[in-house]
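Request: Give me one sample?
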Amino acid sequence: MIAKTKLDIMDGRTALGIEFGSTRIKAVLIGSDLVPIAAGSFEWENTLENGIWTYSLENIWKGLRVSYRKMATEVFEKYGENLTTIGSIGFSAMMHGYMAFDENDELLVPFRTWRNSITAEAEKKLTEVFQYNIPQRWSIAHLYQAILNQEEHVSDVRFLTTLAGYIHWQMTGQKVLGVGDASGMFPIDTAAKNYDRRMLDLFSDLTKGTAFTQELNQVLPQVILAGESAGSLTQEGAYLLDPTGTLQAGIPLCPPEGDAGTGMVATNSVRQRTGNVSAGTSAFAMIVLEEKLKKVHPEIDLVTTPVGDLVAMVHTNNCSSEINAWVNLFREFSEALGLEISGDKLYTTLFEKALEGTPDCGGMLSYGYYSGENITGMNEGRPLFVRTPESKFDLANFMRLHLSSAFGAMRIGMEILKEENIQIDKLVGHGGIFKTPEVGQRILASAMEAPVTVMETAGEGGAWGIALLAAYQLEDTGLSLADFLEQKVFASSEGVTIEPMEEDLQGYSEFIDRYEKGLSIEAEAITALK
């Protein structure tokens, strides 16, 4: 096996995926068998500056280089080879947000991430005019809000892209974007596989007389599909990625994609009637649709797969941050006692304890809203934990509560899809919350009221997904992306499926009733703590 992998590295029969997640930048190198052979990562966090959630350009490039260097170091240590070439490379990142550049390719304002809930006026107006749900985090909502706010930079915008699109542009010189990521910037016509022409015209009409006189279609990146050419690594790009000069230029790149698209790929969920739930700092359920929804739902985003098929997305801004905060508190406590407990051991112990809790979480209530939550109408976040004197307050119920609450807003969105009679044949969970076997999966099955499958690759996440898209870039058999995944990647990967238990379903229903009724408490907390 080592000899085969070494040959893959020497001959460049590898694919590299690098994904910029909310809390970690991860690089994953896969061999010709499409299995990870080396990885590297960099931990980072967004910062709140002048009321805006952002990441600095300095940290973006530092994180990219560190994660790549750690991966390349692992390649040398394991296989004795320097990484001079790679078969193909792909970049992905958190979707949405706002990165606007002027004619000199300079960033006009600090990167505004998906986490910001500052575009309510734009969201409402665009949704009304387009008759198509435009969430606050979408790039077009950020642009239109800046226009409404009469921000000085608006007239200077010459290019608007996402984080993945920005990295790809710097690597290749190509201002392009994978259709899945592009669908979180502006609505996509799934027949044309491009930005919706009718809505482009409507936006043009809407912005007449404002400082934004540019043609939006000329400002947005070019849309391309998975498998299509997206340029190659330039000498400048190679140096940005690997300042040692070891990596050679000329490597082909696949279309840059968003984390939603890479999640679909990593879970083999790009075919119609399949779906996946990605759970991390934010959480989203993605269901590939057979046809358009009958109504416009503010709680449901419509995006696409990496090949342009329509997807219903139930996106929540908050998921695991509050869980992580409490685990860190327990870590501080153990360290104060002089105990050395690994992070994996701490998470596993606390997660497994959750299964000892009662299905209704002991009658307690929690909102892990670190930021605003669009589905429940909260424009700011206030993490909140509430109980009555009668609540069964113990460690098991405490952990079960926070895991259940992590999927609370998502459950509300999924109830709307039920009304649309959406059919789901398979639902796959992935992300760090599923690393501990059974726990997160069982609670999610209760929240979704459906069986949930978790594969062995659940922890690999989007970095592996974009590596697979990079490998698909080199595929010459004519297979569709869905067939490529089923036949070449997941043919022998069945995963573990958990069916929701009746008592869990009933308990979660009781919890979600309490969750919905208690939203007024969260709203009052936001007001009181301003």
Summary: The longest helix spans residues 57-79. The two ends are 58 Å apart (CA to CA).
